[in-house]
Amino acid sequence: MNNLFASVLRTAVPLTAGWILTVTGALGIETDSKAVTGGVTAAVTLAYYVLFRLAELAADRIGWEPARLIAGLALGWARPPEYQAPTGTLPVRIHFDKEALRADIGDALRGAAQDADDRP
Questions:
Q1: Which of 52, 51, 24, 55 is nearest to 40 (CA)?
Q2: What sections of 28-97 are H helices per DSSP?
Q3: Which of 59, 74, 82, 91 is positioned for an S-S bond with 68, CB 3.0–4.6 A?
C-alpha cells in the first residue's frame, strides 16, 4: 500500500506543479484556449518530472543524499517507490471456441452465486 501512496504522490505533485506553472504564466507563456492550455500543461509537467527524476538519479549516482532528497520531495515522495515482483504463477487456460467460453462463463457465474450464498 505504501508503494501505491508513493506512486500517486509522485504523479500528483508534478501534475500540480505543471498546472501551477502554466496557469500562473511563470514561464511567460500566455494561453487563452483550453486545448492549448491542456497541451502546455502536459508538456510543462513532463519537463518538470524528467528534470527532477534525472536530478534524483544523478544525486543517487554520486551519493549526494541532500540533493537526492530534495529532488525526490519535488516529485512528491523522498524515494522512488519500490515495486515487488509478483510471487508465484497462475495457470492460464484459454479457449478459442464459443462453447468452451460459454461453459467457462457458466462455471464462473455458478461459483460467484455459490460464494454469495455462503456469505453470512
A1: 24
A2: 34-62, 65-74
A3: 59
Nearest in space to 76 (alpha carbons), one of 13, 1, 20, 16:
13
If you compute the radius of gyration of the chain from its CA atoms, what whole number of angstroms results? 24
Question: Which residue bears the cell 454469495?
Answer: 116
Q: Are 69 and 55 in contact (CB under 8 A)?
A: no
User: Which set of grid coordinates corresponds to residue 4?
Assistant: 501505491
pLDDT tens digits for the chain (120 residues)? 456 677 777 788 888 887 777 777 766 767 667 767 777 777 888 888 888 888 888 998 999 989 988 988 888 877 766 667 667 776 766 657 778 778 888 888 887 777 666 666
Q: Tell which residue, 57, 37, 59, has the closest CA to residue 49.
A: 57
* Residue 66 neighbours by CB distance under 10 Å: 8
